[in-house]
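Notebook entry, structure prediction.
Reason for the run: the old model in the group folder had no record of what sequence produced it. Starting over properly, with the input documented here first.
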Amino acid sequence: RQQAMQELETLSVQADAASQEKKWFDAVALWNLVRELQADHPKAMARVGEAGGQIKAMGVPGLAAHAQQPWAPQMAQLFDRGLTAFLGGNTNGCLAEWRQIAVKIPQAGELLAANIRKVEELHAHHIRYHLERARVLAEAGEHGRSLAQLRHALGVDPASAEARAMWETQSPAAGQALARHLADAEQWEKMDRLRAAVFSYERAFEID
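New structure, fully documented this time:
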């Protein structure tokens, strides 16, 4: 628990710095990581909204010069849909919407190229963050928390081969740990050591 609180504090500081430096895409990504750790974080939702408002206000770079083009409203719609996905932590969904622009509106394909590259970078970083946390936790024997990180990684990108490989590798050890914690809990219950039993059940619950 203490380690999780330290992780939350570190991410909050980084997210605050990104907001203050007006790095709005980074701010959204970092505050969404904070929300993964604490869904009701008192600042995260407001900060995501603030950064999202700034990104929306900036809009599609260069679109104003093409405002009279018949394809401009469609592009604005795709931009808004992708931004909504991004603000919700769904970088895959954002990229799917924005990549459609080059297919549906070839003449405007380059307008969002820089934004797409930025979201691709943040998408990759998001996956790497969870994979690295999973490795560290697995090495420390924290199988439940490690699998939770891998669930997050697969939520970000269900097609991540690395996350799936790590899941397959860690699942047997996690299953053994689950069985051990459940057996310990039953033994503590028989000895009327209820606090110890609850602790063992909590450790089992972390895994499954």
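Summary: DSSP finds nine helices and no strands in the chain.
The old model has been moved to the deprecated folder.
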